[in-house]
Design goal:
By secondary structure, the protein is largely without helices or strands. The chain has one domain. It is 9% helix and 11% strand. The protein has a three-stranded antiparallel beta sheet with strand order 1-3-2, with no helix packed on it. The longest helix has 5 residues. The N and C termini lie far apart (41 Å). Bound molecules: iron/sulfur cluster.
């Protein structure tokens, strides 16, 4: 989104969109800007594995170059230390 406050052009104010633009992917807001949430999120093949199994993340158009099969299950390679997304859910349980 990119818009300016009407009538403020002469003031040289920054465009509001430049302040609030998302840096994550459009589908899930996945980004690697830290602080980490992926390492604390339960949507992984196991608590210490950098592979996300959340269906929205696996289907994220912008992450398809990270698609990895783990035990015949589609996953997305993530950054445990800096990654996070809109579907974070705290938990350390392993998905067996
Ligand atoms: S925070 Fe998002 S990308 Fe990271 S493991 Fe959880 S669901 Fe996957």
């Amino acid at each position: 989104m990119d818009f300016a406050i009407p009538g403020t052009d002469a003031l040289g104010q920054p465009r509001i969109g430049s302040i609030y633009d998302k840096v994550g992917t459009p589908d899930t807001n996945y980004q690697e800007t830290g602080p980490s949430h992926c390492e604390d999120c339960l949507h992984k093949v196991s608590s210490d594995a950098p592979y996300c199994i959340h269906p929205k993340v696996v289907a994220d158009d912008k992450l398809q170059d990270r698609l990895v099969m783990v035990d015949d299950r589609p996953t997305i390679k993530i950054d445990l230390e800096k990654g996070w997304c809109a579907y974070f859910r705290r938990g350390k349980e392993d998905h067996e």
